Amino acid sequence: MRKTNIPFFLLIYKALAITISKGFDRLKIYRKSKNEKNDKLFKKKIKIGVSAMIGLILLVKVSRLIIIFSGDMPAMDDIYFLAYDSRTRETIIYRYDADMKKTNEVGKAAEYFHNCKIDSEKKYITGVCNLWPPEKYDDTKSEFKSGIVRYSLEDGSLTLLRSEQQMCIGNNQSIFWDSCFPFDNGEKMLMCYVDEENNFTYLLYDLATSKAKKIGMPKMNRGVCDIRKGNIWYPKRKGVMQYNAKTGELKQFLQNADVCTVSDDSRKASYFGNDNKKIFLYDTVRKKKIGTLKAGWNKAFGSLFPYSCGWDQSGNYFCYIEHFIKFFGSSDTRIKVYNLHTKTSKCIFLHRNASATVQYEFVRNAD
Length: 367
Description:
The protein is built from 2 helices and 26 strands. The protein is of the alpha+beta class. The strands form 6 sheets. A 5-stranded mixed β-sheet has the order 7-6-5-4-26. About 30% of the residues are buried.
């Protein structure tokens, strides 16, 4: 019996082994086919995703081209900006012609001509002019008189409207010119002086009548960003406040911001991040960021002065200064314009190897 039973069990074992082996083979084939299906499905999804991204990019590009060629994109105004060199002690005035797409020098002013606004008819530029940096000069020995100055774009003449001595504001040499700004189409001035308690005090000065009116802004020892249509913006405690000189209303304008640049209609504003490597563009009506400009490697944005940035009249073009840092304090300085519709920037002026003694700022539109 054993001789006949042993081969039978061996046959059963062999058959079982073959069955198990075939089962594993089928499982492998199934897994392989399943993986192949998954791979094909995954590759198909990648192709669909890439195609969708390419389609979206092409759609954005085509939309921008349609906007440009259809004429729906608002035209950019001419842009004026200034370059002051403390070595030559003169300010050069530049104009970018938006139609000709060319930048030209239009004139010069003695000493530091800044905080400027151009009138609505583009005939003259009004601003302040003073010695800079002040510690290098002795006003008592200089024939130059600091004050409110107007440059004529028609004949190139420079007129001193009011000297510091004629205005009789505060004590001798107490006017803080960095926070003095023209408004009301250049016919009035926001003046700032340092009082006896070493705080900044502000008043509105009428150039036609020579009358000054003190305003009740909160006392502080920091300057203001700008004045437009009676509204004054100034930084305070990681934010920007808005003070209405007509009504006395005070409210917060921006949070987590310092120095800001407000558009002509006050609907947009720009401000810097924690350093000069980022510029945030903000919609003040919708209360949301609408753009962020980032300085690339070894680059920085100009951020030293209230008018280091600017807006065109439509509020669709933002102007800023970009420095590519080089050796010994020099830099390649570019004046650039950012288009809020196309989300692109273009350079309108380049000064290669600009010395650290040269500083740029924009001329704003008068209100």
